[in-house]
């Protein structure tokens, strides 16, 4: 049965009612990438002051892995190979502009093949300044996505680098 209202979440985790007719479907793929020092690659989200993983919306004509390779390169300048599927979860969220989305976020482990770190080439990108951080300093609240799915993916990826 179609609900009258859905509950979505703002980028800072506040619940917000959403009309079903206003929701846009958006599959997203994200990469958990470690360097040789076992640091994880993150970006600074300028809207929330928290971290994001590289990745984002996959275009209709892309498969998940190709879309993720493109997203990582656009946001970081790195060429990557996409490895194991780590986690997936769906969510409803609302951007600061008021746009409502239903996403399935799919998290993969990735390995750097080449390139060099640089900031996003996409105008008006919210996730900037790719850099490496020690994963032991991170909590679920370190990330923009406040329901814990990014942190869950990170914990699963850590099993591959021990």
What does this protein look like?
Strands 2-1-7-8-3-6 form a six-stranded mixed sheet. It starts with 5 loop residues before the first strand and ends with a helix. The chain contains two helices and nine strands; from the N terminus they run E-E-E-E-E-E-H-E-E-E-H. By secondary structure, the protein is mostly beta strands. The chain has one domain: Nucleoside Triphosphate Pyrophosphohydrolase, CATH 3.90.79.
Briefly, what is this?
14% of the residues lie in helices and 44% in strands. By secondary structure, the chain is mainly beta.
N-to-C CA distance = 46 Å
* Text of the CATH class: Alpha Beta
Structural class: mainly beta
Query: At CATH's second level, what is the architecture?
Result: Alpha-Beta Complex
CATH H-tier superfamily: Nucleoside Triphosphate Pyrophosphohydrolase
Would you report the number of β strands?
Answer: 9
- Using the alpha-carbon principal axes, give the shape: globular
**Poorly predicted runs of 5 or more residues:** none
Largest sheet: 6 strands, mixed
Number of helices: 2
CATH topology: Nucleoside Triphosphate Pyrophosphohydrolase
Rg for CA atoms = 15 Å
Give the mean pLDDT.
93
Order of strands in the sheet with the most strands?
Answer: 2-1-7-8-3-6
- What count of structural domains? 1
In which range does the helix fraction lie?
Answer: 10-25%
Give, in order, the helices and strands.
EEEEEEHEEEH
Fold topology:
Blueprint: E1 6-10, E2 15-18, E3 23-33, E4 40-45, E5 51-52, E6 55-57, H1 64-76, E7 78-94, E8 100-115, E9 127-133, H2 149-158
Parallel strand pairs: 1-7, 3-8
Antiparallel strand pairs: 1-2, 3-6, 4-5, 4-9, 7-8
């Amino acid at each position: 049965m179609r609900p009258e209202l859905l509950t979505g979440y703002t980028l800072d985790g506040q619940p917000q009612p959403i009309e079903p007719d206003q929701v846009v479907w958006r599959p997203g793929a994200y990469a958990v990438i470690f360097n040789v020092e076992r640091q994880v690659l993150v970006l600074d989200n300028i809207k929330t002051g928290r971290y994001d993983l590289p990745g984002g919306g996959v275009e209709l004509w892309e498969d998940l892995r190709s879309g993720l390779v493109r997203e990582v390169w656009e946001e970081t300048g790195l060429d990557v190979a996409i490895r194991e599927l780590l986690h997936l979860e769906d969510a409803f969220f609302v951007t600061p502009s008021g746009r409502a989305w239903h996403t399935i976020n799919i998290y993969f482990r990735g390995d750097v093949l080449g390139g060099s770190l640089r900031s996003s080439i996409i105008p008006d990108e919210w996730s900037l300044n790719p850099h490496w951080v020690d994963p032991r300093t991170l909590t679920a609240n370190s990330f923009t996505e406040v329901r814990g799915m990014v942190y869950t993916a990170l914990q699963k990826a850590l099993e591959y680098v021990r």
